[in-house]
Amino acid sequence: MALTKPAASFPIGLSDPPPLDTKAPDSGLDAWAEIARAGVNFVRNYTVWSAATVDRQMIPVAAELDAAEQHGLRVWLALAGVDANLDRRPLLDEIVNAFKRHPGLGAWKGVDEPAHAGVPAEGMVAVYRHVKSLDPAHPIAIIEAPRRRGGGPLTAAAVRPYAAACDIHGVDVYPIPRGAHAGGPPVNTDISVVGDMTRIVAEASAGKPIWTTLQIAWSGVLPPHPIVFPTLPQARFMAYDAIVAGARGLFFFGGHLKQVMNARDRALGWNWTYWHRVQRPLLEELTDADHTPALTAPPAHTSVTASAADIGISARLTPDFLYLIAIRKSPRAEGRVHFSGLPPTVTETTVLEHPGGNPARHIPVAHGAFTDPSPFAPHNARVYRFRI
What is the Cα–Cα distance from 251 to 46, expressed in whole angstroms? Predict the structure, then answer.
């Protein structure tokens, strides 16, 4: 099957995806064809491996790998149960050797949230080195919790030892409601805590790619807690907040949690209502032809500044364009923002189209500076494109 969108080097994934051999109710497409069409390029498989059942466990994993290849996706495959040390090396070898050559495999997943769980880094480093000796072609990704062991605020020092056990480091952070997942006060309880946590892991990881896992649903919104999901503006801000903070891949967790689904979605095994309202519009923006270069481009060595202290900025450069991804982290501040420090030869910028009735628009640039005439709302995000 041909990809509906060009392959990109910015992973966007679902943890976990819709079940195989089901249909997306809005489009009628195969579920995995639907998510691929919207821009998903990774899906997570979280199998907890057992020597007693490994032969049976491999059957559905192989089916997902086959389906991923068919739909232009890649599987992020967990090594759960054999990922903390080499005590179960024969089983680890069997799993890696069984799947390492499959074209549907994209990456291995190491221990989940190891700093929070207090898993010794030494054993994980041994697993990392051993897996790389068996399969140097696929990266190992480790995702941290937004709290360290004992529930204290996350620090770079707490997660730094685990950077040696992975090729890709990351964090999961689900700030709705009230930043509870990150521990609450004195930790930032605003949804901008996503950027804070992403930045901490990036600081600890010595330049390794960072993946941030964002919220669809999590244990803090399952009954008897109030069921609440991110709105499209909130989900959009959190995605760009992570990107500005250094994320080079995004995953979205909780679409498979049946406790928060309506009856129709529960029967289908996935939260298609949230997909239709929030996830698909967001991914269609992030992965369209205009935005993809901004996400995949390397950083620009340009010191662009904003007139407001709560504006976060990431500048990216391609051979043809300079991109400026800007976010307003404040939940209350609003107003026009002045940007300066652009190349003096730039004469115009395009604000890329985004959801909410915001078509692309043009703003003149003079002497390396411009003021966006449209007030920057709280928790807003904009992508500016400048022709070089």
Answer: 14
